[in-house]
Every structure is written in C-alpha cells, then in structure tokens.
Amino acid sequence: MRRGFPDLLVPRAPDEEGSPGTRYLLAILAALEDPGIGPGFIGLVRGLGTHEESRRIFLRFVGEELLGRVAPQLDSDRAEERVALAGSQLLGLVVARYVLRIPPLAGLSIEQVARTIGPSIDRYILGDLDWGGDAGGIA
Q1: What dihedral angle (degrees, nearest 10) is formed by the CA atoms of 116, 68, 49, 37?
Q2: Residue pair 86/125 in contact by the 8 Å Cβ criterion
Q3: What predicted TM-score, i.e. pTM, was given to this entire model?
Q4: Closest Cα partner for 119 from 2, 5, 8, 29?
Q5: pLDDT over 60 at 135, yes or no
Q6: What is the pLDDT of residues 116-130, one digit of tens each?
Q7: What pLDDT digit, counting tens, does each position of 80-113 carry?
Q8: Contact 42, 32 (CB under 8 A)
Q9: What are the percentages of helix, strand and coil residues in the chain, rounded to 5?
Q10: DSSP code string of 88-139
Q11: CA 115/CA 118 separation, integer angstroms
C-alpha cells in the first residue's frame, strides 16, 4: 500500500528541508501571516462558533477540498479520519496562535512551530494509529 503525503499538501520547493508535515505547516503559517490572506481566514475561524454562515463555509471547504480532494490521494487506511485528525491539529493551532494569541506559542517563529508540530501531522497522515480495534469510525 502506498502511504505518501498527498501531493496537494506538499509545497514543491527543492531547497526546503523537513518532513512533509513540516513543509505543509510552513506553507500554511506563511499564508496565515500574509496580510492579503491571513486576516480573512482568521476572521472566518473566529466566527466558527457563533456565525452560522462562517461555519457552513468552513465545513464546505473541509468536505470538498480536504475530504473530497486530499483524502482520496492518501491511498491509506482510513484516509478521511487521518485528514480530519490532521485538520483538527491545524485548527487548534490556528485558534491558539492567531485567535487567542496564547503566549509563548504566538511569539514563536513559523519555522519553530512547523518543526515542532509537523511531525504530529506526519503521524496522523502517515503513521501507525491505534484505532482501538474499531473497524468503523473513530469511537
């Protein structure tokens, strides 16, 4: 079984170092800190719990782009669950760093954050996960 990182997630730059999850996080964090991209996305995340339209937009993105386009590329067991787990890690990071601005996380460089959290993303996408013997969805 092929267990590679989905091509849609890994930026293609030959001089980049680190694992696929680290490179992915570097790209996402750089986009979030871009004044043309970040504020709109962070605003959308801020509204998830209180604004129904924000929630619908975000869920549509998750369903169509992540679960619909990325999970099928994974070619691994329980691809949708793996993408959802990685996405939950990323959403938590965005909330903690950019919405709540929790110190010291908010003050770390994007490289420090990516190199620290990237291996967790790799584990969700590529690693062996203990599903608790459940053959269906996550219990």
Answers
A1: 60
A2: yes
A3: 0.78
A4: 5
A5: no
A6: 999 999 999 888 888
A7: 888 889 889 999 999 999 999 999 999 999 999 9
A8: yes
A9: 65, 0, 35
A10: HHHHHHHIIIIIS--TTGGGS-HHHHHHHHHHHHHHHHHS----TT-SSS--
A11: 5
